[in-house]
Amino acid sequence: MTATTINFVRHGKVENPDHLLYERLPGFHLSKVGKRMAQATGRFIADSPQLNTSVAVFSSPLERTRETAAEILAPLNTVREARGEQALELVTDERIIEARNEFRGKRIGYGEGALWRKDNLKLVRNLWKPSWGETYREIAARVHAFAMEKVDEFAGQQIIVVSHESPIWSYRHMLETGRPEHNMLLRKTALASITSITFDARSHAVLGIAYFDPAKDVR
C-alpha cells in the first residue's frame, strides 16, 4: 500500500490590536508571539524523521499563512540541504484560503461597528450551518479537491499545507463524520497546530489522522 500524508498547519497568532474579524482582509501579519509559534512548529517539523521528509510546502495566499510557512521552510530546508536535497519553495493555492465571511472588518465586542450588534446577529441563525458567508460544505469541498489532487501528485510522500482553522477543521470533520457541519466552538485546531491526514494513494481512503500542538506553550 502506498500512502500520502498531508500535514495541515494552522497559522500562528495574528497582530490584531483592534480585535477585528480579519477573514480575507489584507494587511494582517503574524504577531511576535505568532512568529514564535510558527518557529516552534517549524522546529518540530524539522526534528521529526517523518515530517522532515516532506517534499512540498503550500499555503493560502494570505500574509499570516505565508509568514507561517516561511518559518517552517527555513529549518526544513536546513535539514534537506544537510542531506544533499534541493531546498523547497513555497507555493500558494486559493483553495486552502480562509472562509468567506460577511462579518469581515467587524470588531469583536460591543459598540459601533461591533459584531454583536443586533443587525449583525440576524445573520447568525445556526452555528452548525453558517448563514453569514461560505458554508462548511463549500469550504470542505474546495479543500477536498486540493487534497485529492495532491494525494495523486505526491503519492507515497508527505507535504505541508499551511491554512486556517475553518478549512482545516471543516475538512477533518467531513472525513471523520461524513459531514462538514460542526459547532465552531468545539474545534480542535490550535494556533500553529498540525493535523496530519494520511490517505491511501490509490483509493484515497483515509488511513489515519494525527494531531500535534508544538506551540501550545509559546507565549
From TrEMBL:
Any one Pfam family match given in the protein's UniProt record, by short name: His_Phos_1
GO cellular component, one term: cytoplasm
SMART domains: PGAM (SM00855)
GO molecular function, one term: phosphatase activity
UniProt xrefs under Gene3D superfamilies: Phosphoglycerate mutase-like (3.40.50.1240)
Superkingdom of the source species: Bacteria
InterPro entries in the cross-refs: His_Pase_superF_clade-1, His_PPase_superfam, PGM_Phosphatase
This protein's name: Phosphoglycerate mutase
Native species: Bifidobacterium gallicum DSM 20093 = LMG 11596
